[in-house]
Amino acid sequence: MSSAHSKLYSDDVSLVVIVVDTNPFFWAAAALPFADFFANLVHFVNSLLLLNHLNRVVVIAAGVSSCSYIFDSSDASAAGGVGVTATFDKASRKVEEFIAQDARATAGNGSVVSGNAASLLSGALSLALCYIQRIFRSGTRHPQPRILCLQGSPDGPEQYVAVMNSIFSAQRSMVPIDSCIVGTQDSAFLQQASYITGGVYLKPQELNGLFQYLAVVFATDLHSRTFLRLPKTLGVDFRASCFCHKKTIDMGYVCSVCLSIFCKNQKKCSTCGSEFSRVMPDLNSMPDQSK
Amino acid sequence: MPQVLVVARNFMDMVAALPASKLDMLYDSAFICEAVLRSLPPLAKKYALQMLYVLAPVAAAAMEEWVLDEYASKHRVAIDKLLQLRVFVEVRDRRKEVSYKMNQKFQGNMQKYLVDGGSLPREPIPLSVTGRLPASADLEAYALDQWECFLLQLINSSQVEKGTSFSSSMMKTFQRGLLSSRDGEAPKLTENGFQFLLMETNAQLWYIMREYISSAEERGVDPTELISFLLELSFHKLGAAYSLNTLTDVERIAIRDLAELGLVKLQQGRKDSWFIPTQLATNLSASLSDSSSSKEGFVVLETNFRMYAYSTSKLHCEILRLFSRVEYQLPNLIVGAITKESIYGAFENGITAEQIISFLRQNAHPRVVDKIPVVPENVTDQIRLWETDRNRVEMIPSHLYEDFPSKEWFEQCCDHARDHGYLLWEDSKRMRLIVRGEFHPEMREFLRRQR
To answer: Where do the TM regions start and end (chain B) (predicted)?
Structure first.
């Protein structure tokens, strides 16, 4: 990566990939209506584009069973002429289409228990990282990338492996993941993501002033972050999900070969196939096995 | 030896130097607000955004809390810049405590920008009127051509076949500071002139623009109007046609000059005439901040000090000649070598080693750009060594004192000079000492008092 980073702009030019939670189960019950939230988001995107003409912003919507790109500022400027308002109208239409499509997919899927569905964070993060890699590999110089997750719905423990893989790949390519929680409960995934990648994790107290939170904390470019006092995370929930039942666990068994996590004692690792010949003592008497 | 560098990026200082009322007038236009905001250092931009919806003044002490203690200097720079440009306005309350408030006009314009997004300063003419417009590649070629032609004329007016139509007095203003002409002699490039040539296109452009604006008053044009027009121009869409009829008289005169520089292309239709902004114009406000353009380079430098420059441009050849020996020239290739003599020649002209190296780095051919380092290390080291070689001897104007009547007196003089830190050398056996030149008057006074 060293060669890629020498081509970074030294200044505050940034590429911001925003992952927006469009989970209808969450927004139906949320304190802040989605329309208001979206207006705040448009404000924020506009302000990022205002700060530097080379800034690029990409918005990715994460639904319940699919995710997709809904806005790319480089398309908008290439199309030109039509005006920014038109571009944002197009983006909001795209969001509506996406939500409808996602709802159809969810209904067809049938596996989701309504009322407690998680958004596809892992998929959206992967899309974001793919986009950033594409930028890394093209052109002579590129902006400094970062990801911002605006999440409301609860974590989906079944995505644990995929999310962690995305987080580590973001860490490897030095892409900070910022997270702003617009829902009521903290997200363990995003706490870990921001902690590992050096991003900012924030759960705003007052959602009506969402734009001010976004402008003060999340509009800060990576260059300025070294100087500023930004909110620090108080505690990080490091709990993992087991690979066998996708449950969040406090304590479990870890494969000594591939570090897969299981909630129950297994004879053979389902991930790498190593056989555990020695019979493990009962979990309750071995507290240091926990991860 | 202190180096006088040509400072090209301080266009905003010029804006900041405008009287407050004129500056506030400039902020009537949303484009200028946008350009000013983008020209700010990153931290200042961030502060402006943070204050965008804050109507009440915020105490200066509270703002200092935003930044980590060890970076307080960065904070001060940012705040100073914001105050200079009147983006922030200082408010003092009854207890004399300072707090800052955002300029209302600026705030209003930026809030509107966030809601509506940016818009165009004026509507382009539809294609049905203009017919086919030049492709962006053609336009870029035109702009660079025009600019190079201008530069060539600037440094060497005899070599140009198709000169620009700048009046000679105008050309003189541009050359002021870059060329020195003594009577009866061919004008010679000054130190600043050489440094100017090694700068990036955008930096050069701003230098010229600055001269252009500062000479505006002599021509009876209000500089404020020019500044606002230039900043506005950078928000026009690249390659679209705009009618000349929408311009004021001042702007119409200015646009002809700008066309000569390659910032816009003028075209004449059946009824209307229009201008098409080129890349040089649209990059104007962009290049105010540090993120520079990504122009493709052309120089390949080998570890054996040979240099291959893939360029057809005469200007490039002239620039390379400043610090290298050009050996032969093929239609699309200039072959040269970096030699001790050529580099010494450059130093004579006041070019520094760092400038040469940064020029080579910025203009590296795309094939070698990916290599680390871009310019072979042995070459850069050698260039630096040659420079330090020249600076082995430091010259200090000084005075020699000798023939002291007594040893005591000599000692006193030595101590006096040493206490003030001006003693350079002493020889107690033969009672001689050398003192820095600027200390001489005081030394003389001291000697007189002793007598």
So the answer is: none
Of A81, A215, A228, the CB nearest to B67: A228
A88 domain residue, yes or no: yes
pLDDT of residue B3: 36
Contact at CB, A11 and B291, closer than 8 angstroms: yes
Please return the burial class of A198, using the count of CB atoms within 10 Å of its CB with bins 0-12, 13-18 and 19+.
middle
Range of the domain at A280: 239-291
- Domain of B41 in residue numbering reads as 11-116
Question: Are residues A46 and B113, on separate chains, in Cβ contact within 8 Å?
Answer: yes
* Domains in chain B, number: 4
- Identify all chain A residues contacting B47, using CB atoms and an 8 Å cutoff: none
Could you tell me what percent of chain B has a pLDDT over 70? Answer: 87
ipTM over 0.90: no
Q: Looking at the partner chain, which of A6, A53, A223 has a beta carbon nearest the beta carbon of B38? A: A53
Of A200, A225, A250, which marks where a domain is finished? A225
The strand pair at B432-436 and B398-401 is best described as antiparallel
In the structure, what pLDDT confidence band is assigned to residue B307 with cuts at 50, 70 and 90? very high
Count of A-B CB contacts under 8 Å: 99
Alpha helices in B289-376 (DSSP H): 314-321, 340-348, 353-362, 366-369
Residues of A in contact with B366 (CB under 8 A): 140
HSE, side-chain direction, 13 A CA sphere, residue A76: 26
Asked if B330 contacts B362 with a C-beta cutoff of 8 angstroms, the reply is: no
Question: Which CATH number does the domain housing residue A185 bear?
Answer: 3.40.50.410
Residues A206 and A91 in one domain: yes
Task: Say if residue B373 is preceded by a cis peptide, omega within 30 of 0.
Answer: yes
Residues A158 and A276 in one domain: no
B153-206 pLDDT tens trace: 777 655 555 555 666 667 777 777 677 665 555 666 777 777 777 777 777 787
The domain that contains B425 carries what CATH number? 3.30.70.2610
Average pLDDT, chain B: 80
Q: Are residues A203 and A284 in the same domain?
A: no
Query: Which pLDDT band, with edges at 50, 70 and 90, does A281 fall under?
Result: low
As a whole number, mean pLDDT of residues B239-262 equals: 81
Map residue B259 onto helix, strand or coil.
Answer: helix
Rg (CA), chain B: 28
Q: Specify the DSSP element, H or E, that contains A94.
A: helix A84-109
Return the C-alpha torsion angle A218, A221, A224, A227, nearest 10. Answer: 30
Q: Which residues contact B88 (CB under 8 A, 6 or more apart)?
A: B47, B48, B51, B79, B82, B100, B101, B102, B103
Last residue of a domain, one of A181, A200, A225: A225
* Numbered residues of chain B with Cβ closer than 8 Å to any chain A Cβ: 34, 37-38, 42-43, 45-46, 49-50, 52-53, 65-68, 71, 74-75, 110, 113-120, 124, 237, 240, 285-286, 289-291, 294, 366, 369-370, 372
Q: Which is more confidently placed, B379 or A283?
A: B379
Tell me whether residue A232 is in a domain. no
| Residue B143 sits in the same domain as residue B270 | yes
Q: Are residues B225 and B249 in the same domain?
A: yes
Residue A45 lies in a domain: yes
- Smallest CA–CA distance, residue A251 to chain B, in Å, is 39
Highest averaged pLDDT of the listed ranges A57-71, A165-179, B164-178: A165-179
Residues of chain A contacting residue B373, judged by C-beta atoms under 8 Å apart: none
